């Protein structure tokens, strides 16, 4: 597309504000063309929306400022572009709305920030607009976690949560730690951080749904079904807000009959709460160099199922964690089994994405783990209700990036506050959201606030460092990296045992996460193939059956949201060198190497079944060529998790 | 210049993409904590009404008012808001916590029709939860109005409409005077997305609420569901070696001979 070459030119012309792109170094934002021709075309196609467009014309003042600062003369190319693009509905001006704060992501962090902002505003009787956009069709539909919730942040945010009906119905009563061998489950002592007295076994999806209701009651404008796909910038480079994606494009990016342009939210502060490995957040890292001073983030993939089990086997409140079989000593991994009450069982496996063997198949590891006698016994006579997977942060303190930039901040797992030893990230995510809310509210309502001057939330980062988030993460910071010695899991467990029980992190040393996960894979010829057992259809299942239990659905005939930077790399590199690991690490069967019918005999091509995607982000993390770019599909698509 | 009032009936049902389960008691489908949305055929109905309104405005031959109605519990209002966001003008919520079956809904809609006096009533051909395919037809019977069901194409004339219907034998075109009942089939149109600006505007559009009891209608259920069960799991097929083997299996295992 010609516009891409324009971006290339404008990227090099620093500070020359060409009419078609706002800030020079931003490759992500194409400012809408403000010609009357464009508006007229838009009117013909989208009659009802015209009224808003003309008012938006008046509202968005940044464009007039753009022209005032333009230092280059329009070229002949520009005139031709104007002719071509004026009839293109995909380039039509977007409706823009102003808000005080816009939050990307309706998970624990985003919702807590939203609720806190409205609590502060309502206490002062102040008009304060908070808008939250969430890509899932319903709040909670993309939420998946173990989970045992530490109510620390909830107690601070909504102290009367019990009266308000929060779904924290099952207190954690007993903790068990086990080491699995092929046939036995050997009890082990566990670090004190894993004692769950005072915590609750919850379905995080239901909990987030409830938080969503609290947010709406507090006056937050919650818009599920709308995916923020673009970051908007002011000319000074600060974040201006976000835009939701255009909907109704076919798979060749051509507008269909139902085409609707996305809309823009301009805000004084934009909070990004996208969860682990956010798709907009990764652009912010590059844009503002937020990762210059920290270690690379490391990840795990968490795969789980929820079962309805035989009532005789249900022990409500029992929390079990297990290490060992089938995960080998050189791969980080652990399993969980939580008795949720009402005969429901949540069970899953977390595999560190720093694994080295390209033949490792996390989904199949989970399926075969369920055949361990301890687990199989629990599941016999039961029924699998739900399945899902999501990448989680493992990097801890050392991998936390700079949390703020002009115009916004990062909160929750998109920054990375998960406490891996507790295996909990919800309470820290919520707290980070609350702290960002306090900081943003103070900045926006302060006398010193100047319109046009970006808000820099420096004190937010300081608040996080002074809070219990930092204290917790500091205490356990050396545990996960201690697994990266030749002693593998054994060394890690020994070190972590000593550190958590005796030293409590009070050591002068800090181990570092030296290597990003995608650089860890060994070449296929140096790796050992793993012979996974076939699923039996009763305890273990084939991948597609499991995918059907995620309820995932994406509207048909839309652009594939998994973008390859170079379409030859999957076969030329991933398949050749690593034997196609993407066909194994995706827990939804999105990536398949199939016969290339249109090429020479015996060659393969990568088939992307993007319809199956459950938005776990593992592909973006683990692709050894970093060639897969996970972008957000049309809002409303993706999994439909329940009970997870 | 014609000024039409179009009444569109909608129902909040379990979303079509959800994998449904039978509840523990075997009495109904599990609906707690499950995603709900507007019945797809009702979305088509709402879209059709809005298209009629837009066509009239464009050709400057008249105006239309699109009124959406839904009978059900409080959450039915979400469905109404979606319809308003698509472009309907106002909404009516007939509030009831009872199990409303097609005959009850038809009676309630009749009461609404007598209040609103629309020129046409558009319904989906059936709801995807009960697949009854009765409400539109019953409403026509109660009102003594003409009905055009399974519509795949609609053209409005002067106080009449020409409807192409999808029937078992193929396609049938009929012309009826207005007022009339229309029920939508899949091929009638493709519903538009409710854009975010329209969703925000929809919050300000009027939504009136009536209690079902106030409409003076007998809505007692006439049918009782005795049992719901999942279909039996599909058995694998078997390959047979010879005709004798086939006959033997049909006789002794499948017991159909």
UniProtKB/TrEMBL annotation, chain A:
Cofactor field: FAD; [4Fe-4S] cluster
Gene Ontology terms, MF aspect: 4 iron, 4 sulfur cluster binding; electron-transferring-flavoprotein dehydrogenase activity; metal ion binding
Biased composition range(s): Acidic residues: 77-87
Keywords: 4Fe-4S, Electron transport, FAD, Flavoprotein, Iron, Iron-sulfur, Metal-binding, Oxidoreductase, Transport, Ubiquinone
Annotated 4Fe-4S ferredoxin-type domain residues: 604-633
InterPro entries: 4Fe4S_Fe-S-bd, ETF-QO, ETF-QO/FixC_UQ-bd, ETF-QO/FixX_C, FAD/NAD-bd_sf, FAD/NAD-binding_dom
Region ranges (Disordered): 71-94
Catalyzed reaction equations: a ubiquinone + reduced [electron-transfer flavoprotein] = a ubiquinol + oxidized [electron-transfer flavoprotein] + H(+)
Entries under PANTHER family matching the protein: ELECTRON TRANSFER FLAVOPROTEIN-UBIQUINONE OXIDOREDUCTASE, ELECTRON TRANSFER FLAVOPROTEIN-UBIQUINONE OXIDOREDUCTASE, MITOCHONDRIAL
Its biological purpose: Accepts electrons from ETF and reduces ubiquinone.
Protein name, UniProt field: Electron transfer flavoprotein-ubiquinone oxidoreductase
Lineage of source species: Eukaryota, Fungi, Fungi incertae sedis, Mucoromycota, Mortierellomycotina
UniProtKB/TrEMBL annotation, chain B:
Compartments it resides in: Mitochondrion matrix
GO cellular component, one term: mitochondrial matrix
Stated family: Belongs to the ETF beta-subunit/FixA family.
GO molecular function terms attached to this record: electron transfer activity
InterPro entries xref list: ET-Flavoprotein_bsu_CS (IPR000049), ETF_a/b_N (IPR014730), ETF_b (IPR012255), ETF_beta_N (IPR033948), Rossmann-like_a/b/a_fold (IPR014729)
Mitochondrion in keyword set: yes
Biological function: The electron transfer flavoprotein serves as a specific electron acceptor for several dehydrogenases, including five acyl-CoA dehydrogenases, glutaryl-CoA and sarcosine dehydrogenase. It transfers the electrons to the main mitochondrial respiratory chain via ETF-ubiquinone oxidoreductase (ETF dehydrogenase).
Oligomeric and partner information: Heterodimer of an alpha and a beta subunit.
Cofactor(s) demanded: AMP; FAD
Cofactor detail note: Binds 1 AMP per subunit.
Protein's UniProt name: Probable electron transfer flavoprotein subunit beta
Keyword annotations: Electron transport, Mitochondrion, Transport
Organism per entry: Linnemannia elongata AG-77
Keyword Protein biosynthesis appears in the UniProt entry: no
Domain Electron transfer flavoprotein alpha/beta-subunit N-terminal intervals: 26-219
